User: Fold these one by one.
Assistant:
Number 1:
Amino acid sequence: MQKKRVSIKDIAEATGVSHPTVSRALRSEGRMSDQTRTRILDAARTMGYTPSLVARGLVMQRTNTIGLVVTNFADPFHSEVARGVEDEAVLHQFSVYIASSKVDAKRELEVVRAFQGRQVDGIIVSSSRVGDQYADLLQETGVPIVLVNNHADGTNIYAVYHDDYTGAYTVAQHLIDCGYRRIAYLGNGRAGRANTERKRGWGDILRRAGLPAEVKVLGSNGRLQGGGAGVAPLLDEAKRLWNAWPDAIMCYNDTMAIGVLRELHGRGIQVPEDIALTGYDDIEISGYVQPPLTTWHQPRYELGREAMRMVLALLNSTDPDEVPNVVLLTGQLVVRASTIKKVSHS
Amino acid sequence: MQKKRVSIKDIAEATGVSHPTVSRALRSEGRMSDQTRTRILDAARTMGYTPSLVARGLVMQRTNTIGLVVTNFADPFHSEVARGVEDEAVLHQFSVYIASSKVDAKRELEVVRAFQGRQVDGIIVSSSRVGDQYADLLQETGVPIVLVNNHADGTNIYAVYHDDYTGAYTVAQHLIDCGYRRIAYLGNGRAGRANTERKRGWGDILRRAGLPAEVKVLGSNGRLQGGGAGVAPLLDEAKRLWNAWPDAIMCYNDTMAIGVLRELHGRGIQVPEDIALTGYDDIEISGYVQPPLTTWHQPRYELGREAMRMVLALLNSTDPDEVPNVVLLTGQLVVRASTIKKVSHS
DNA sequence: CTGTTAGCGCCTTCAC
DNA sequence: GTGAAGGCGCTAACAG
């Protein structure tokens, strides 16, 4: 099956020079007669030469390769992060290994270890559930590990964050400004830090406005199903504490909000007339559901790019201490119909 | 930055044996005294040894690595394919390189070439725009290339397909069974073969039922925006030919259908009362929009797994001719509210 | 059972 | 300007 690949030795033989010369010619390094250079390059082309990056990686101890760990391919958050990572990576001739952790800390570490066996030059972990444990790994192996929206606590590692607190704070403020007074929060029980921060932003602004920040429920996951399943307990809790439904539900993310939307629709509850609804992330589809979701635009693509940039900076700097180890990006409120009651022209 | 990694030589030195012995011990190959073996394994563990798969790849000419090319990370079709590929890959200790072609044939070929430089053992291309050109590449390099839902024509390559014709046929039949008579097709101008097949399935069943298969429009892409933008020309075309709106629109995929849904809603057109709507793929969200979409379940995860299985089969067989070079999977109709008018109890 | 030797394909000194 | 030698970390062949 495997054809023998042509190596620089083959080219050397064919052109009557030595392999080092071929190597230099191909990398346009060292001066040499234009004649031999073009002869070598021509031979390489006609013989169908492809340099072996494996061999090069071995000798250089640099593979121009990074490993990207996501929790789940299907999650629109990660796909955008991945896009950012890849775009930045190709600019620098890096290839990207990908693997999913399936939201399992043990698997996440296995995957990282596998990447290290592949001698990747850097590792990016999106929504890590392990977090600061990487500080040790980093010490051990010297392979830069950059986290995107680390879900664990601890800050002594390289990370690109989004400002979840401010985002949630702003969304909640928007709801208050719209006149909603019983604002519930539907969180994601598997999200760790991101969820804590968003809940904190929600709670702080509510209390500051003199509103009750009591009704909060943790969904079992951050997906459609988790959102839908969270509705019943949330309504129950509101009934119990307030003897009334919430007039607004703030969700951990857009995906859950869409799950909520269907559940509310099934119960004959109108959005936003009966209950307003907000998401978080601004995934593309959130503008296409009915009603379109008010949400917080999280710069997912940029998070990915910044993470890759940080890896590259770490790789190219002699003194890693001079590379800023945390980048904090912020997003933007996106107001759509799910929080804006139609004006009645009566 | 880079710590020196510990090699089998280091372990050999520390334990007073030769490196090949260490190598054998680690791979539990060849018999040796349990004593030395455990001594070596202990040393490896305490010294924090990680085998270099790069070096191994170089000598074995087998990297246990595959390259996966998708058109677009964000597309839910590809994320499921990727999941299937990865799950099967990890079972066999393969790592997965990923890259996106951005629906650009030139970029697709570049990416494949880059993978070959990395000496991947196999390549999987999802929704290729290049298709049979790979036959040559395969001949040249001997690296198996498996296509998932090849969008180009030609069949002389390894491929995993979904039966688009039957799927579209069945969806159209369902619409006819529901009593719809003016069934339009909104295609994807960038989809090639898949689109052709689905359109053919639609047209054949309509004609067989004595219905007009005239109103068809090609959207500019297979995304939300492409769906939304396709509505106006489609309605115009129907008006022109039939002097009436279609009573059903069959879309190339779910994503486009969701774009259509919003556009129809914006125009005050009810689904399915005024116009019924179908998607294709059965992406998760299609069950969550309002109304939930009738669609065709495409076994995306299985397509990915089968593709990876084919790569492995090709790798492990001495005679590639004995490996079936085409796998055809079929899907399943999923009926939801977007085609079923509520029964009126009058 | 274990050590010696060789080589995967490439790059980097160093001579010439 | 170019060639010769050595080595990256590992495995495969052969000795012993």
Number 2:
Amino acid sequence: MQPEQIKKVNIKELARLLSLSTATVSKALKDSYEISEQTKKKVQEAALKYNYTPNPYASSLRKKKSKTIAVVLPEVDDNYFSLAIKGIQAIAEEKGYHLLMYLSHEKLSIEKAIIDACTSGRVDGVLISISKESNTASHLNQLIAEQIPVVFFDRAMDVFEAPRVITNDFESGYYAANLLLEKGCKKPVFLSVSSSLPICNLRAEGFLKALTDAGFKGKANDQLIYCDGTDAENYAQVKKLLKSKKRPDAVVGSVERLAIHAYFACQELGLTIPKDLKVVAFSSLEIAPILNPSLSTITQPAFETGKKAAEILFSNIEKPGKVKASETFILPTAYFERGSTL
Amino acid sequence: MQPEQIKKVNIKELARLLSLSTATVSKALKDSYEISEQTKKKVQEAALKYNYTPNPYASSLRKKKSKTIAVVLPEVDDNYFSLAIKGIQAIAEEKGYHLLMYLSHEKLSIEKAIIDACTSGRVDGVLISISKESNTASHLNQLIAEQIPVVFFDRAMDVFEAPRVITNDFESGYYAANLLLEKGCKKPVFLSVSSSLPICNLRAEGFLKALTDAGFKGKANDQLIYCDGTDAENYAQVKKLLKSKKRPDAVVGSVERLAIHAYFACQELGLTIPKDLKVVAFSSLEIAPILNPSLSTITQPAFETGKKAAEILFSNIEKPGKVKASETFILPTAYFERGSTL
DNA sequence: CTGAAAGCGCTAACAC
DNA sequence: GTGTTAGCGCTTTCAG
């Protein structure tokens, strides 16, 4: 049997066992210069022996620092966000911070409640990718009021000033359209997952600009479709579009899932990609090359985005104002042409 | 402008503003029966007006409850785990709990550090899917010493008694082998991601049993291969296997990623699935039907597993001992035969 | 180099 | 129905 306690010791108990004051113990554990080497050693050994771990909340309360950050996302079961979390986690771990994960499920009301929970000292900073419904920043103002740094990643908010990490969205949208035009597409359509998210709008704008530049005259209405519902609704919408008489000959999915909907819809409708429909997706899907057919992607650096956003956040936690709220970090996407646009 | 404070108020300040005691305010905010309706109303309105949110850590310290649970996983950028988190989160949100997410990156040393961080009141409970290296339970003993409920999901530990939520692994392995034998495979191989995880071993055992039952005489060595390294190493190993002269005619991936490795390796080696190699995967990949070829899967109920595990955890947080440590919950898998085993 | 004491913000026992 | 008070476990002046 190891010398294990049933009852866990706190600093007071540990101090008593060592016949020292709690102050001395506290300092010794932090390797303070005020304490003699001998005492430090004694204390640290005892801490190990009695399996002492400081109560984090007592410490947080006193120091007004929680060593915790919040990540708030619309969803987790999504390639992009999983990878972004991984990037965030990597930095948080390195810095010794804890990670509270919250999901807004694309609802502003939930996002508000989450931000509320982040106030009053629960976290030292917030990383957020906003919900589709988030058209107001009033909830985020609470955070600045409490001087809690915020950093946007991927889905940022125009009306709120905070550092943001995004990709070259307009340009990527432009590229996607051009790729399709080069292949001879006459009726390409951009499937946008939201009419409010700047990131989607920029991609859509780039896409439309390319069409205009190429001399297309069609109404934007026919070139840009919003799939702004639930997963099931979006699928139904895509399927309906592909079944209709004004079926496009190409689609660009503003997010991975919409392109996947197109794949499934084609399968169900007996359409062949790329013959009947070409597909490009904004996606960081690793297995894009083994889809049927392999999927052409505009790949976002999801992991790096998470990492970068976390780095900025910590930089602002450690030195408030270090990274200005007006700064935007643009990480480049990469283009991979594959079978879906042959 | 809304009546917003720059300085955030605490309960003392709020009490002062209302000319009440902090005790009264505290009780009023909790809708205590001791307080008059009138006072409650006044307090609640003031709380709203001054945007008061209680400091969670002060409250935790006092109540010795954190309303927080920890989820510890080997990785997040994995379909299965993303979905499991989603299930966990759904229940946590419903119960009003906060979620700390930790990644062990398959390292026991990190897992130990994580569990350490979970002690001393940081969390009220722990949901864990252990790392490949976790062959000892000493770190988890800290949790029982502090009466912190633990529940395993997916990857459980044999040597530690805690409720667990898993799938019918042996049976599923058996099924996978039989499926391949029916298709006439002569040299099927099970790709196990770990020689220590019970969940993998059970799947492997089921697989081997089916071979034995079918009269196979081969050495287990040739029928069971451990891909227990990094992603890159595992890929290299799979590729080497498929290039070797004792190339199997079928593989079962104990986890999704190994099957995906096989797909990529085949692509690179010019092998055709299912002609040259049949593939079955333990996987909850939604897009299995649109792979090239579509992937036959043994689908684990990832979301439900997360949900169930969380439910058990909360049940034990609310009523310690409600669910016995010896209980095992088995959620059934579903079989989907697709193109990779035609 | 060590210790006494105050106090972070809250809640719960106990008075009144 | 409301207030007083002690104290959760820790850190941090400030004294000695």
